[in-house]
Amino acid sequence: MQSSVLTRLIRWLQEELEIPGASIALALRQGEPSPNFLPMILWQYGLISLDQLDQIFDWLEAV
Description:
Distance between the termini: 12 Å
Radius of gyration: 10 Å
Number of strands: 0
Oligomer: single chain
Number of helices: 4
């Protein structure tokens, strides 16, 4: 189940927030591949804004 959510999250990040695949790949290499950690890693590395982080958490809550 977690893997399915992660796959959907990655697709959503690329399609809706237009986050480059390279940024997502970098974040996935830095920590546990989990929908819970990916947004925080993207934000910590400055790859997304605080507003985008908020949008991601809203999306995760709705899924």
